[in-house]
């Protein structure tokens, strides 16, 4: 892995008043530091509703949990609604262990209206 490659990235798109942020790879302290500002900037530009898609997250530690909590706080400050799309069993297990599984609205899949709605995509693989 070169110095400019990260083991994580995000993809975003907007449907109506909702921003969908797909998180990919390893969510750790480095991801929190590198992705956090980008995610917060996206939330600042978007409407109040945010969906974090965790299906492609392969690893989650304290840094990744801090990222999720920071997003939850930022969305709440804007009066918005945050929903998570359930990740792998490993990621779900970690959220259960730290007792955060009930602190988020967790969905199994993207709601049909968001999956089928017209989207404005930011399809870049970007750590920041």
TrEMBL record:
Pfam family, one: STAS
PROSITE patterns: STAS
Organism: Streptomyces hundungensis
MF terms (GO), sorted A to Z: anti-sigma factor antagonist activity
Gene3D superfamilies for this protein: STAS domain (3.30.750.24)
Family affiliation: Belongs to the anti-sigma-factor antagonist family.
Protein origin, superkingdom: Bacteria
Protein name: Anti-sigma factor antagonist
Annotated STAS domain residues: 8-117
Entry-linked PANTHER family: ANTI-SIGMA FACTOR ANTAGONIST TM_1081-RELATED-RELATED
Name of the gene encoding the protein in the UniProt record: rsbV_3
